[in-house]
C-alpha cells in the first residue's frame, strides 16, 4: 500500500488489530500483533494509524487461552501492553531515517497478481504466493529492506527514483498494457538495472491478451519487453544471463521465483545475481547480509530479528531503554532481541530535556498536564477494567504521589517504583474512562 500510494501523494493510514479474524488463542494474537505493529512502524514515512477496529470484540469477547481449551476475556497484561503501544503511536514521529540494510532494491508488483490466485491450473502450481515470496524473502531474511514497486505507478517519475535494482517476474502476474514495458525499457536505458526471473511456462502466458493479438505474436509478454530492450535471452537455463541495454543492465534467469524458496538452498544463483547487479552494475555500494532490521524514529527504536536468517545471533540494543512491549515498562540496561522476535523501545538517551516532567509511556491517554515549580499534574484516562501502567520522567525523586478519582476519592496505586539512574517513576493503577488525576511533587 505504501508503494501504491507514495508516488501519488495520497495519505496512507495503517491498520493493526490486536485480534485476528482467525480463531486462535491470546498468545498467538499477541505474537502476531507485535510483529505487525513493528512492521508498520518500520515505514517511517507514515504516522497515521487505525489502532483498534471493532473495540468491542477486543474487550468484550472471550478467546482461547494459550495451551488450553477454555476461553477468557482479554488478559490484563495484554490489554495493558496493547494500550501502551496504541498510546505511543500518538507520539511516534515521521522520520527521514532509513531501515538498516542495503537500500534501493525493489520488486515489481501489479494488480494482475491476484488474477492467477489458484492452487493448481493445468498442472502449474504457485503455492502460498511462492512466486512473489521467492523474489522477496531470500532478501528479507538476509536483512535487506526490499521495496515493492507497482507497475501501475510507473508513469510517475517518483516510482523508480530511488530504485537501484528492480526484480520482476511474469510467473505470477501479467502486464495490463504494452506501456508498462516502454516505461521499464526507458528506465533501464537511462541506467537502471533490471532482474527478470521466470521460465514463462505457466498457462497464463498464453491467454488471449495484447501481446498475442492485434498483430502481436509474442508467446509470452516478456518477449515484448526483451524486444524493446534489444536483447535475446535463451529460453531455458538456470544460469544468470547478463545483457547491456543503453546505460543500464538486464539479468535474466530462467527459473520461476518459487524455486528459490520451495527448494532448500534454491536461492543461491538468485542471490549471486542480485549481488552482482547491485554492487557491480548499479554501483549502489556493498550488499551485506544480516539477520535484523533496525530503525530509530525520534526516541523510539524498532527492531525485528529474522528467523531462518544468516545466523541465530540476537540483536542487542544498549540502554537505558524502556521496553514498550512489556506491560511493566521496565528500564533495561540493554535489550536482547532473539531471532523471530521484535522490540519496541523508548531510548532514554534521546530525551532532550531531562528536567522537564513528562509521561514517557502510558497505558492511558494523558490530558491536562500542568508543570508548576516542583510539581507535575495530569489526568490519565483509559478503558474500564484495564490496568494503567506509566513511566514518568521527573527532575528528582518524588516525595508526593497522589492519585484522585473523579469523585475526589484518593486512590492507592497498585505499584510505584523509582529508577534513580534514569529519573523515571513507574506507576500502576486501575484505568478509569472518567480519568484519574495524578499529582507528583518533589
From TrEMBL:
Fetch the InterPro entries from UniProt: Class_I_gatase-like (IPR029062)
Q: Which CDD domains match?
A: A4_beta-galactosidase_middle_domain (cd03143)
Q: Entry's Gene3D superfamilies? A: 3.40.50.880
Protein name in UniProt: Uncharacterized protein
